[in-house]
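Hey, resending since the last one bounced:
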Amino acid sequence: MERHRFERREFRAHKGDALVWSSNVVHGGSPVRNPSMTRRSQVTHYFFEGCLFYTPMLSDAPRGEMHVRRFLVDVRTGERPVRTVNGLPVALGPLPKRRSRVYVDPSLIDRLTVARRSAAAKLAKRRGRLKESVALKLRRWRGR
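The structure tokens again:
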């Protein structure tokens, strides 16, 4: 911050205040001065449909190495969004430091759809087995 001569600013929130900022803005909390004071907060990340969800700070965009967020869920549907760039599906090639090389390939649309359906079917099957296992253990525990 000092090296680039960025000005440090503090946001002193009052009850009911909200602060909205771009994730690309350098941000962070300061040390707790009074442990009896609350520092509760809610963090919500908004993403646009059709974009690649990545963490800029952990990425090296000029080298094409992106730290892609892998565990996102659409809160409306409960499903994982399809990764796209400019509306085209992408494939991720693994790289060190939890980064990925992003490959844009329009022919991936059908393969990604099939892969997602297959993964969803496997997950449903696992959930079903888990429910059966729990029910069986409960019956044994109850002596039935």
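The radius of gyration is 22 Å.

Sorry for the duplicate.
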